[in-house]
Write a structure and sequence with these properties.
12 helices; serine/threonine-protein kinase; alpha+beta; EC 2.7.11.1; AGC-kinase_C; globular; two-stranded antiparallel ribbon; 29% helix; Transferase(Phosphotransferase), domain 1; ATP binding; Phosphorylase Kinase, domain 1; 13% strand; 2 domains; kinase; six-stranded antiparallel beta sheet
């Protein structure tokens, strides 16, 4: 539930509690996104710590992303899994949308890549196993994440990795070639080239991340989407035997080479998570012990806060452009604008998560695997 007092159709008598920003102490910024900031917050009454995503409605409207933020809230309300960052509350006021999520103190993988540059094979395999578990859960529920990247992989204090940010995630549908959202560098070629895509698109990003952990760089590097696309079309990157670092196995290199295949029909993961888990690199991994959190992570984040301290700033710091502030205030004063965000509220205690999420394609990984056609775009 939320403090959406401008929604005339909302029956205020039915609201037993109001979730508002005033219930939280805003401690400091731990991340940034396209619409605002992610705060480390403390619930004043319970002293429980959370991560709170604060998103500007004006920015959401300007970037034509209303459907994306509403879709993210909907998906999170149907999901609960130990390998994703779960939602606790969603609410809004006149200026912002708020998502209150699990707080993970280990920092995101991008932060640690910046500090470590590379990881050992044992560390990387543990990260990838956690990620595969998260994707298995999403894919069995017919959901494509479509933005798997180090910034969206967050570690808890025990070094277990969780997947977050469902802003561009979608329930799979057969004709999704127009859905091209994602992050260049991790975006699958079929998505970049506006072709139909399925679960294999997420596993392409898994391969890129594994490559990055092994070699300290991505397989394709470019400043723009066009530069990346031109590189991908020009050649198929593969890890050569001579490039494998000391301490890494041939199986790891083979896993990378099969997940970063340009043609999705040749890519490991086309037929879902079972295929990925059966690869020799992961075949003997103790999945049940991972699920039960009985494994000790080979990478433990430092005990203090794992974030870029340069992000810290007081919450009352505002945009100093008075003209822009006035424009936003006028925009958000309209009831027709506020109605665009109707139904954003969610409260975990009232609307319990469902572990039996009914999918449009059935509970089978192959049911959400897209059908691909041969394309000369990726011809060697």
């Amino acid at each position: 539930m939320g403090n959406c007092n401008f929604a005339s159709e909302q029956n205020q008598d039915e609201l037993q509690t109001y979730i508002t920003p005033r219930l939280f102490n805003f401690l400091y910024v731990i991340g940034r996104g396209g619409f605002g900031k992610v705060w480390k917050v403390e619930h004043k009454k319970t002293k429980q710590l959370y991560a709170m995503k604060e998103m500007s409605k004006a920015k959401i409207i300007t970037k034509k992303s209303i459907n994306s933020v509403m879709n993210e809230r909907y998906l999170l309300s149907t999901l609960k899994n130990p390998f994703i960052v779960n939602m606790v509350w969603a609410f809004q006021d006149r200026e912002n949308l708020y998502l209150v999520m699990d707080l993970l103190g280990g920092g995101d993988l991008r932060y640690h890549i910046g500090r470590q540059k590379k990881f050992t094979e044992e560390q990387t395999k543990f990260f990838i196993a956690c990620l595969v578990q998260a994707l298995e859960y999403l894919h069995y529920n017919s959901i494509l994440h479509r933005d798997v990247k180090p910034e969206n992989l967050v570690l808890d204090d025990q070094g277990y990795l969780r997947l977050t940010d469902l802003g561009v995630a979608r329930i799979w549908k057969p004709d999704n070639q127009s859905d091209t959202s994602g992050t260049p560098g991790y975006m699958a070629p079929e998505v970049m080239c506006r072709q139909v895509h399925g679960v294999a698109a997420d596993y392409y990003a898994v391969g890129v991340i594994t490559y990055e952990c092994m070699l300290g760089k991505r397989p394709y590097i470019g400043r723009t989407r066009k530069e990346l696309r031109d590189q991908i079309i020009a050649r198929q990157v593969q890890v050569r035997k001579s490039e494998i670092p000391h301490g890494w196995s041939l199986e790891a290199a083979d896993f990378i080479n099969k997940t970063i295949q340009r043609k999705p029909q040749n890519r490991l993961g086309l037929n879902g998570p079972d295929e990925v888990k059966e690869h020799p690199w992961l075949r003997d991994f103790p999945w049940q012990k991972l699920e039960n959190r009985e494994l000790e992570s080979p990478f433990l984040p430092k005990s203090e806060d794992n974030f870029d301290a340069k992000q810290m700033e007081p919450r009352d710091k505002q945009d100093t452009n008075p003209e822009l502030i006035q424009q936003n205030q006028l925009l958000l004063r309209r009831n027709s604008v506020q109605e665009l965000f109707q139904g954003y509220e969610y409260e975990k205690e009232i609307q319990q998560h469902s572990n039996n999420f009914q999918t449009i394609s059935g509970n089978n990984s192959t049911a959400v695997t897209a059908r691909y056609t041969q394309s000369n775009t990726y011809a060697n």
